[in-house]
Amino acid sequence: MTRLKLDKITQYIAAQRPGYSLAQAFYKDVDVYQAEIEHIFLKHWLYAGHASQIPLAGDYFTFDFDTESVIIARTASGDVKAHMNVCRHRGSKICLEPSGSQKSLTCPYHAWNYNLDGQLISARNMPDDFDRSQNGLHKVNVALLHGLIFVCLSKEPPSLSALQNELDEVFELFGFNNMKLAEKKSYRIPANWKLAVENYQECYHCAPSHPEFAQIHAMAKPPKVFQMAKSDFAQANQGQPKFKQLNRYFDLAEVGQEGYQYDRNPLLRNALSGSAGGKPVAPLLGSIQEYDGGASELMIGPLSYFLIYDDHMLGYRFLPNSVDECICDVSWYVNESAVQGKDYQLEQLTWLWDVTTQADKKIIMNNQKGVDSRYYQPGRLSEMEHFQQSFLTWYLKTLAE
Ligand code: FES
Ligand SMILES: [Fe+2]
Hints:
alpha+beta; Rieske Iron-sulfur Protein; 2 domains; seven-stranded antiparallel sheet; about 25% strand; globular; binds FE2/S2 (inorganic) cluster; binds fe (ii) ion
């Protein structure tokens, strides 16, 4: 990035007032967007999927954002490996389908053939001095956290060790390793990715925009009411591993470590799960013995979110396509032994977060429309937007670096 562009971004950052939403340029300037891709998306661990999506050797899926595409595959030896979906010949995309099963990967252009470990196996009619061993696919860092697959495109990815130490018990308890993907929906949102992330991080909008969610989640209540419900709930369940409270997100993460956050919050009106009327929707997860009327919020890295009910788990992520469009992917996970149609119905399982995400898509689009106006100016944030505020502080600091 040129000096001129960097100076411009530095000025935007300096003009930003704490406690206010971001200035228009952060949502529209392509140079800001490029800086975000470099300093946020290419530097952090991103939630790509779950091992249950690729149970057999040869199974793969792709993980795409901005101009990048990563192939995540189960190799012949049973490992999960990730490589850039870019041919080493003249650069064609190799896997064109979002998922599938292949013994090896053949480029659709001139048929160079790679194994699932990324090694180039064959390339026709190449000069004698061509070295196949130097032309394997670009490797991508991949980490498995109890079945959850994360990738990081950086040469020096942040460490996941602190997160693994502190969250191991939680992953075990909810049986993350023994979950399966029941459903995945993608919502294309014509808005800057930060408007989607900021919206996910505050529940100021929950009461007016999400009647279905607000009926069963205490989080949608005003801060005082919520805090009271939360402390009663925590007291009633003291000492249980589900009730850990970990805040190592954003500025609270140790240097060199990926940030994370975990917290369990109460549901309302005897709700047991995230569903219509709070009714159970699937068999209990992991070694959970009974419903406690709560839901856990888990964040891994700055961009990957998980919501854990006792009988299902949701993975949430926002990926940019361009400065003015992002994709919100929602994945629903259940106990791997659960049988669709018998132990759970997709319709019931996905209902709450499908209606909620569709409503979010609308409000985020409207937000972008207003932000695009000449009359938009950064507005004061409420008390219920404190988490969004910490994200913005971290974001501005990260960009400034
Ligand atoms: S671009 Fe892949 S084989 Fe030519
Ligand atoms: Fe929302």
